[in-house]
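Archive entry. Fields below.
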Amino acid sequence: MTDAPPGIDLNADIKLDFHTVSLTESPEAEAEIRSLLHDNGLDLDEQVDTFVVCRENGRIVGCAGLDRDVVKDVAVASSLRGTAVSLRLGSVVVKLAAVHGHHDLFLYCRPDSVQWFRGWAFHPLVEVPGVITLMENNPLNLPKYIEKLSRERRPGTTIGGIVMNANPFTLGHRFLAESAAKDCDWLHVFVVKEEAAQFSYSDRFRLVTEGLADIGNVTVHHGSKYIISRATFPGYFLKDKATVEHCFCGIDLLMLREHIAPALGINRRYVGSEPLDATTNSYNAGMKHWLSETPSAAAPIETIVIERLTVDGSPVSASKVRALLARGDLGGVEKLVPPPTLAFLKQQFTRAHDDQQAGR
Amino acid sequence: MDILKNAIAGTLESSDVLVKVSPSQDGTLTLHIQSEVIKQFGKQIRATVMQTLEALSVSAATVVVSDKGALDCVLRARVQAAVLRAADATDLDWNVL
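PREDICTED_STRUCTURE:
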């Protein structure tokens, strides 16, 4: 055997081992990952628990965090940049995600690393300039979704959009949609698809559809991974956090402005004033900034805040309905929700009650 | 061969190719190719993928190919592996391959 000439095989003398670690199970690995991320100018994202790590002689020299179908916190030690380590890391991440059923992935990175991740077969979707870029690795999904949406395009000069979680649909949602529909030629309502809410997506979607059925100029759309999802807006699903990072909020809103709104011609976004929920409040504040003030290739979208409906002097909200429900106060719930939601909640409540009885 | 589920084969490393195969939502065959050598070999890559799919009687699927300069034989093998995984195939006629 002869030695390879110098400079030919960059990886010949590097013994690399790829495996996954769970941060909760391995505090030592967490410390090492934190320091590697720090060297790369990154902070550990608290939502990520699973990391693919690359070890050289036991030391972690590369890492990539995986939160379901979202890749974050990718770093490679400076000594190994320019070698094939990055691409091997990428391959392992893609394969690991596939094993867990996630075939199409999103990825967060700094805008100056976009070129690097093109090598991982990701392409950029939207960028908060100088801060963060969201990429994805299936080039067909977004165009397919946009094409489907654009078939629902309606004529008119003022086209409104509302995004709601409706967990569950209340008179507040109804009031917001009704006011918006009166104010524009056509209104498109999106229901957040992520299954992170107390009520399932199919129940939430059905109650929104039923609750708005009598308004003539409204289309209710299925949500997607591109509107307030774990991928576009991770912070929304961490309600205990007091504030949502400005930039994540920007990713979701720019996604709407640059991709979704143009498909439907949406030029107004309606939103209820938010006196109760800090996350939603911060999102609303960011809305004006990202939808109209910040420069973008896409046309600006006007943000219109509608004063929230109050019943007995206090604002109606889905979280209040959930709180009343938890106390079994159906009388209180009745004042805050429209008939289809009430019927659904009563049915659920009775069933839960029966189960409890049967359990005793 | 019917594509029943998502499957992948290959890697992102140099001289290899990553192939993702998933069920078609509208009964058509959609092929997307990204390659560092698309200008030089795009046509050839497309032809090889289409031939391989045809040999496996795949007429409805979504196929995404991320090529890193794989040779034809590598490309064929990766497409075959992804399709066979996606079709849950266990009983194979190796002659047609």
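CURATOR_NOTE: The interface with chain B takes residues 84, 87-88, 90-91, 94-95, 98, 101, 103, 119-121, 137-140 of chain A (CB under 8 Å).
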